[in-house]
């Protein structure tokens, strides 16, 4: 009996040690950020638009081949996605440009940073009534987005077309209606919600449609007559927390976007140069 009792106690002790080792091993497999997230898991905060879809279809499969597990966290607004990054409940977002990220950091005190530039759908000048920019005429109507950021981009596109000029010293990243110096064709420039511009394309002569809205609405790309020349701060970037920029998973994301496999995927989906592709991603 004594031998049996000692043997049983020994087995229980071994079991306890084994269990403890298992717990320690389990904890070691988790990230040390307090979230319990596995080191091989990438939590992606997505928001509506073509960029999250491009990630899921073209980049996620590459990461999964490399052994990463991708968790998608859907948000209805980009600001919510950035808040998730800030609060460390998500790791990555691919729906914003540098200007938006910088503004979010400034307004919230966040410390978000970019990993790499990624493909971007530029704003475009569209028309269902005209076939050429040379058909511009006095008094014609132009729809532009009403939110400040996209209004600025739309006016810069009209400037690019040669249809307006802006006052000397105007910041190219924040052109406002009052910054227009000359409107030689007396264009009727109408601001409205971006979501309504594609629907009302037949009601105006010209319309400037943001890239993500053109994608979401399915507007015929053949109606695009001019595409914006993107400023560096308006090129989309993959975004995370500053302290994650040099992590293994972050480097894997950058490598995936710059891989031959992703380049081949994108080539088959870039008819008419719909996507602007940064130099780092070109093959």
From TrEMBL:
<keyword id="KW-0564">Palmitate</keyword>
<dbReference type="InterPro" id="IPR004872">
    <property type="entry name" value="Lipoprotein_NlpA"/>
</dbReference>
<keyword id="KW-0732">Signal</keyword>
<protein>
    <submittedName>
        <fullName>Metal ABC transporter substrate-binding protein</fullName>
    </submittedName>
</protein>
<feature type="signal peptide">
    <location>
        <begin position="1"/>
        <end position="31"/>
    </location>
</feature>
<keyword id="KW-0449">Lipoprotein</keyword>
<comment type="similarity">
    <text>Belongs to the NlpA lipoprotein family.</text>
</comment>
<keyword id="KW-0472">Membrane</keyword>
<dbReference type="GO" id="GO:0016020">
    <property type="term" value="C:membrane"/>
</dbReference>
<dbReference type="Pfam" id="PF03180">
    <property type="entry name" value="Lipoprotein_9"/>
</dbReference>
């Amino acid at each position: 009996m004594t031998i049996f009792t000692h043997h049983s106690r020994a087995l229980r002790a071994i079991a306890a040690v084994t269990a403890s080792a298992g717990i320690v091993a389990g904890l070691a497999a988790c990230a040390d950020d307090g979230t319990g997230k596995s080191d091989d898991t990438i939590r992606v905060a997505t928001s509506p638009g073509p960029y999250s879809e491009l990630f899921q279809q073209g980049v996620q499969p590459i990461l999964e081949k490399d052994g990463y597990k991708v968790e998608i966290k859907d948000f209805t607004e980009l600001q919510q996605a950035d808040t998730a990054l800030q609060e460390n409940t998500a790791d990555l977002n691919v729906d914003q440009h540098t200007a938006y990220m910088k503004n979010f950091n400034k307004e919230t005190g966040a410390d978000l940073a970019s990993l790499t530039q990624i493909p971007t759908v530029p704003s475009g000048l569209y028309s269902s009534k005209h076939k050429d920019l040379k058909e511009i005429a006095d008094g014609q109507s132009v729809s532009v987005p009403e939110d400040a950021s996209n209004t600025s981009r739309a006016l810069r596109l009209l400037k690019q077309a040669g249809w307006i000029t802006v006052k000397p010293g105007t910041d190219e990243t924040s052109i406002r209606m009052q910054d227009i110096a000359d409107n030689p064709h007396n264009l009727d420039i109408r601001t409205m919600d971006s979501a309504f511009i594609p629907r009302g394309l037949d009601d105006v002569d010209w319309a400037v449609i943001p890239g993500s809205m053109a994608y979401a609405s399915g507007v015929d790309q053949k109606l695009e007559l001019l595409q914006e020349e993107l400023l560096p701060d308006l090129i989309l970037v993959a975004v995370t927390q500053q302290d994650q920029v040099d992590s293994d998973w972050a480097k894997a994301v950058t490598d995936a976007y710059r891989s031959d496999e992703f380049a081949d995927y994108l080539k088959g989906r870039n008819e008419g140069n719909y996507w602007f592709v940064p130099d780092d991603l070109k093959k």
